[in-house]
Amino acid sequence: MSKDTNQPINQTNEEHEDTLTNRQGHPITNNQSIRTVGNRGPATLENYDFIEKISHFDRERIPERVVHARGAGAHGYFEAYGTCGDEPISKYTRAKLFQEKGKKTPVFVRFSTVIHGGHSPETLRDPRGFAVKFYTEDGNWDLVGNNLKIFFIRDAIKFPDMIHAFKPDPITNLQDNERFFDFCCNSPETFHMVTFVYSPWGIPANYRMMQGSGVNTYKWVNSAGEAVLVKYHWEPKQGIKNLTQKEAEEIQATNFNHATQDLYDAIERGDYPEWELFVQIMSDDAHPELDFDPLDDTKLWPDDQFPWRKVGKMVLNKNPEDYFTEVEQAAFGTGVLVDGLDFSDDKMLQGRTFSYSDTQRYRVGANYLQLPINAPKKRVATNQSGGQMQYKVDRAPGQNPHVNYEPSILGGLKEAKQYGKEYTPQIEGQLVRESIDRQSNTKQAGETYRSFEQWEKDELISNLVSGLAPCDKRIQEKMIALAEEADEEYGRRLREGLTQASKSGSSQKPLGNKDADKAPEKAINKGHEADPY
Questions:
Q1: Which residues of the sequence carry a binding annotation for heme (predicted)?
Q2: Segment among 23-27, 141-145, 218-222 with least mean pLDDT
């Protein structure tokens, strides 16, 4: 790091009324050039300002979420510590919300399940979404993640196939373990996530008592234009609690909204949930000394090599006034970053950066960022106009209404000044369509298995056996092979369990559920006859 990186960040608001911003409220410092590898190109996918601009333009002429449909939300604030562990945070990032100890930034958080529909039980085995919208003085920052710290895949092109496999069968409309495991056994990078999801970590007890993670690898940039790789982790001060399959089924029998109710009731009685935000930091290079790529979303960064550093805490202290207006219409995007935060080359992050914001324009509308829950809590001035449900034009005071373009000398908007030095990483290489090196698909799954307590191991094996028992033998063998590669005991117990398991029943049942096949017949047998009326 250069000598000036620890100097205080200039907190002065240098924007003017006629400064050009995007709809997130981010000042636009360069409205002439997209981000490219060298000045001749090619362009990179994470051109957020360009994508925001062109995607809105594409929709200027005049549904339930595909994933994360079931959700609960709350308002609160993030309080910065002003440090990153024991060091001044300005050493690593110039993002204003982190700089001052005690500085509070308003937030809105949406928790969710991933695969299941809007009114599905909150006890189902599934990752949980953990999305935080920071309403910063520089515009919005969305930190969009899950409760688990890794993901099933490492390349965004596989995401539609993954979700299709995990969603209900297109013919029967039933979730099908065979479809799930068919995808996973043929995508070995999924095995670490499968190990977590089929363990008790796959059913958090509620939203307040679960961790959160940014999952993707991001970058922090300081005033000197120097960058580091960063991972985000939310740790609940309420403690962490997970459920077994049996416990989840018992709760579901009496309340399928239990997690939403728990969050709402806790805030209403003044028991405000809190999370502390930690980061892991790594120098911005390929780290050939590691046996995995730090941009691989299926991997954990070892905390003994990359320690967790506290940077702030979040408190949720206000429930929504209207569910649809705030929770349902809340729209997040991984590309929504403020100055001092940046993208890494993480392939999942780069794909999500286009997909998330594009989804919001389709789902909520071209002007979703004018809704109060999504709008930044600062001035906005853009040249975007038109599109479904526009109710105002984001003009600056005194702006010439005839000039909806830039540059102009006739009273239009002007670019913002760039204050921190721009981060310009060196990128070399041929454009290819290849997977990353150092895949190491099962090593960390074995480490995770060995870290589990005995009851967690037992629950994992029981749930996997239940899901795999009715599946095609070829799928079983491929899953056993992955488990054996991860850990000898893991593979042996899975093979023994499948050998002893009944082959009867259907695979078309919720993930990890043992007795779903019996439910239709049980409903007939237990049903009470009635005369017509």
A1: 356
A2: 23-27
